[in-house]
Amino acid sequence: MEDESRPLRRHLKHFNLLEKVVEAVQPVANHRLAAALVHKNSIISIGINKKKTHPFMRDYGKNDEAIYLHAEIDCIVNALRHVSADDISKYSLYVLRAKKNGNGMAKPCEGCQRAIAQFGIKDVYYTTDEGFNYL
């Protein structure tokens, strides 16, 4: 019989690593977010929200005024330096938002969801005020 807590531990492992990442970065517009692309339980790429822009944000921004680089987009851009766009569809995406009193809602915005769909990422896990959820 398989241990039912094993998948939960695997997710928590990735979220715990992302918590350490966001602790080390400066907030952008009062938010600290990190994202990781994971394949076969190995982290392929990490991204953070940044107070700068990127050409991808023109295509995947939540609106025309969205100028800051989102963690999900940064993570995909970083992955594309090492793997093909086709490979990204095999990966899972984890997104974490750190708040003063724990984690918060990190559900990808509409623009990031378009990028996730275009790259074929099927499994997306994100933090909520109560724990984590998935798309």
Characteristics:
135 residues, alpha+beta, disordered N terminus
Write up this protein:
By secondary structure, this protein is of the alpha+beta class. The chain contains 5 helices and 6 strands. The protein has helices at 5-23, 55-60, 71-80, 85-88, 110-118, and strands at 32-39, 42-48, 92-99, 102-104, 123-127, 132-134. Strands 1, 2, 3, 4, 5 and 6 form a 6-stranded mixed sheet that branches. It is globular.
Shape: globular
Q: What proportion of the residues is helical, as a percent range? A: 25-40%
Portion of residues in beta strands equals 25-35%
Unreliable residue stretches? 1-5
Structural Rg = 14 Å
Query: Strand count, sense and closure of the main sheet?
Result: 6 strands, mixed
Cα-to-Cα separation, first versus last residue: 28 Å
Total beta-strand segments? 6
If helices are DSSP runs of H or I spanning 4 or more residues, what is the number of helices? 5
The secondary-structure class comes to alpha+beta
Order of helices and strands: HEEHHHEEHEE
Query: For the residues shown, what is the average pLDDT?
Result: 87
